[in-house]
Amino acid sequence: MTPDTLLRTQLSTAVQDTTVPPGLADGAVAGGRRRRRRRAVAGGLALAAVVVLATTVVQIPGNGPLGRDGEVASGTSAELADGLAWARGLPQGDPPALPFFGEGGLWSEGQMHDTLGEEVNYSYPPQEVVGGWLVVTGQDEERLGLAVMAPDGSLRALPTGTSVEGLGDAGVVVSADGRRAAYGSWVVDLTTMQATAVPHVPGSGADDAGTRIRMVGFTADGLVYEGASFDEGLGATWLLRDDGTTVPVQPPEGSHISDADAADVAVRYDYVGDTDTCVTTYLLRGTAWEEWRSDCMGQPLGGAVGVSPAAEWLITDDLPRVWSIADGRWHRLDMPAGVARAQLDAQRGGAVWESDDSFLLPVADRWTGPTSPEPEFVQHVQVVRCSLSTKTCERAGDEQYLPVVTTMWGTSQLRFAHP
């Protein structure tokens, strides 16, 4: 979702065993060999880190353009306010194709479902699956569960005992048809709720912090995941095919499959001093990796946000410019300079690919409360859709007026799961 999306999208790249461009938050996407501790951070501790990473915003007194029905959102910044004003002036487009928790409940295809039970955890974005949406249940990071929520609000819990106890790891990936989910060391058939253990699970005596299964994602050929054997905390990459057999699919040296990207896309970043960054993209064809494109950007890269599903575009913190992997050059969206960077910095990411051509970016007046560790505030947020074929942006659905609560275990800010 990645329920792993909440901070894994923001922190996971920080702890990969490859050189990944820093940016968004300097500590959120720095390279290094800290990956052996990545799962412990991104699973059990990721939600607590939200509070630590929250930025302080400027209080704006008096009346202003950010309120709705006479209300004004205090605690915003000028940059965020400008972004919301810009988003409000865009032409109206279709609602987001991805579900999210927003004003009043769960939103999907423009419809709001308000029959959510108290056990549903808003800190983790929902993901569409067969029969409804996959959601996280439980409010304590050591007692999280997964369930399929039907449109009437009823919940079908995924099999118990399939998560690592005590670490609160809600990392989960879902197949394109929404019929299978993989998490912990299990694959679950969501139509029957039958759980099957994946091969290459580390032994019982292995160090949890350095030998954790990492579910990467599903491809047309099966499930890609990292399992045994482990080398300094780095797992071997496997493809689990539908017939139950596995084959190694280790990405090319120096490249990495990001949690924010498709499971069949690996990227390597090579820096030329402080003057240039070269990007090499690989595609998994069956069981073999093939180089797709390799080009230099002509500048140092700050932060990489996500590769499009077809590996043709790369969102970076240089928005409104987007890097074309397909033709090796920059393209500029019709977006004011500075708008996207302020939103990306405040969210530590936030942009999510909706399709091969378009991505979604929540644009809000604020992303944090005035106090900690339990700030409460109202967030005015307009989701924006930007199309790479037209280089234009539009409003994706209606503006959301969203009460937000952030605790040590999570935040109910508007977020999307990476599909």
Can you tell me about this structure?
With 419 residues, this protein is mostly beta strands. The protein has a single domain, classed as Methylamine Dehydrogenase, Chain H (7 Propeller), CATH 2.130.10. It contains 5 helices and 29 strands. The strands form 7 sheets. Strands 1, 24, 25, 26, 27, 28 and 29 form a 7-stranded mixed β-sheet that branches. A 4-stranded antiparallel β-sheet has the order 5-6-7-8, with no helix packed on it. The longest helix is centred in the N-terminal third of the chain and has 11 residues, at 78-88. It is globular.
Largest sheet: 7 strands, mixed
**What is the percentage of strand-forming residues?**
35-45%
CATH topology, anyone? Answer: Methylamine Dehydrogenase, Chain H
Gyration radius (Cα, Å) is 20 Å
Arithmetic mean of pLDDT: 81
Multimeric state: single chain
Count of folded domains: 1
Uncertain stretches: 1-75, 164-168
Which class best fits the helix and strand makeup?
Answer: mainly beta
Count of DSSP-assigned helices: 5
User: What's the CATH first level?
Assistant: Mainly Beta
CATH architecture: 7 Propeller
Alpha carbon gap, first and last residue: 7 Å
Transmembrane segments: 40-60
Keywords: Membrane, Transmembrane, Transmembrane helix
